[in-house]
Amino acid sequence: MGLCKLGCVPWLLGILFLSSLELLCMADVHYYDFIVRESNFTRLCTTKSMLVVNDSYPGPEIRVHRGDTVFVNVHNHGSYGFTIHWHGVKQPRNPWSDGPEFVTQCPIQPGTNFTYQVILSDEIGTLWWHAHSDWTRGSVHGAFVILPAPHETYPFHPPDADQTIILESWYNDDYLELIRNSTLYGQAVGIPNAYAINGHLGDTYDCNDTIFRMEVNYQDTYLLRIINAAMNEEKFFSIANHTLIVVAQDASYVTRFATDYIMITPGQTMDVLVHANQNIGQYYMVMRNFHDSAASSNNNLTTAIFQYKNSVGGPRNNASLVSLPEPDDSNATSSFLSRIRSLRVRQNPPLRVPRAIHRRVYIAISTNSIPCTNDSVCITEERFVAALNNVSFVFPVIDILQAYYKRSINGVFTKDFPLEPPEYYNFTGDLTILNRNVTMGTKVVMLNYGEAVEIVFQATQFGAGGSHPFHLHGFSFYRVGSGSGNFNNVTDPKSYNLVDPPLINTVHVPASGWVALRFFANNPGVWFSHCHFERHSSWGMDTVFIVKNGGTKATSIRPPPASGMPVCSGA
């Protein structure tokens, strides 16, 4: 998590951009060991034990170069099983190491280990890794930094140093117990007790908690690698008296623009330049929630310090005076997101926005309720669920990838996820009189290799309403359009940006609105798609896209690792 001086690695000064073949030839192989076990941490005057990697919160940073391969041997020294996901890494033809529990693998059981092969391709900048089991990612997560390849340059003047900034949720209770009790009682998990920046709660809470300090030199430029690892909260972030220059999102360069704040959803990463050009002193870095639903929210400010060397005294301003949008300022969110455009530079993959679409998927997002079952001790007669096109996803006991690849395992999933809502209505209107019951099932979408795909996510006013961050594993996609109200498939595509849409892996779906994504299904495998609000994913706001093999070995799923996969207890 420390500040990395970029001037100490001379290969960053190279000026030649290599072809894909040259990059492959120069790619390196890295090895990491993750020891996952319980460790004690004290926050808010309370000490608790939680599962972490290598006794650190956040976990260790992986720092490699574009095109490298990383082997991570994960040792489970804890008391329950989990998996690790490499968020935003496409893993070409390698779903075996993607990580979502019961989708591409079964949990790594206590006392065992599993080695992930993380294959990088064209990703550049900042991604992250996190547990993908229940709510374990609340404490098991860390940064995945992808530096330019040897002899490759930044598409901007190289910064003097870079710093990872991870935005987090903090619960005094155990993460696994939180979701287990939520499932048992059919109710939502409560709001966090606090939030953290790089594991520090800052100085706005009642206890004397530590505050993260980033020490800077006057007139130096810093690249902030910002990751929203919060469980259920989109975030505004700003630095007092300093301008932020956004240069990348989700490991892809964007057209640079200046802003006083950013809005970043859970799962997203954003690279931001900051020039330390103010009077020598200490300045607050501040984050708070963007919240546009009827659900409860904690709107506390959380702080860190942007500290010039040789400064004395405390921060120059009050944290509450830092310029941030109001927590429910949807206009500030949409205004910020509308400025993000792909940058046409050689360091980015060629811009290939699908135009002739082969497969369209229109997905209505909802939170719903169903009658309480006999195996639950519900507080009310109904329990919360969430759904896509009225299907609430049920995780199987054998992973979907194994069942699909082996062909001999039946009954794990069905291929009938609806490609449009089963019923059309005013999705963003008053829905109080509509039936909110859903179908429970493990339904997937089948895609042919190479198809041009368009997905439109439609937010609805079921439940608390509000916006949603959606993540698709195995791909980056183009965010080609967004709007308010119900999507109109005749008029709304006329407003699409097919020239320079941002290339991302996690997208903000606006409350009472829609967002349109496009990509080519050129990565064979089993790929999870889900809301990155952990409470919604836990309730079933998920589905799976299976991309069939192409006609050649190079367009087909790689064989499973020779050492085997974690054993499924339900097999």
Distance between the termini: 40 Å
Number of helices: 5
Radius of gyration: 23 Å
Strand content: 35-45%
What average pLDDT do the residues reach? 92
Question: How many independent structural domains?
Answer: 3
What is the general shape?
A: globular
CATH architecture of the largest domain: Sandwich
- What name does CATH use for the topology of the largest domain? Immunoglobulin-like
SSE diagram, text form:
Layout: E1 4-5, H1 20-26, E2 29-43, E3 46-53, E4 62-65, E5 69-76, E6 84-87, E7 113-119, E8 125-131, E9 141-147, E10 161-170, H2 175-185, E11 194-197, E12 213-216, E13 221-228, E14 234-239, E15 244-249, E16 252-259, E17 262-264, E18 269-275, E19 282-290, E20 302-308, H3 330-338, E21 359-371, E22 382-388, E23 391-393, H4 400-406, E24 439-441, E25 444-447, E26 452-459, E27 468-472, E28 477-484, E29 503-504, E30 506-509, E31 513-520, E32 525-531, H5 534-539, E33 542-547
Parallel strand pairs: 2-5, 4-9, 10-13, 12-20, 21-26, 23-24, 25-33
Antiparallel strand pairs: 1-10, 2-3, 5-7, 6-8, 8-9, 10-11, 13-18, 14-17, 14-19, 15-16, 15-18, 19-20, 21-22, 26-31, 27-30, 27-32, 28-29, 28-31, 32-33
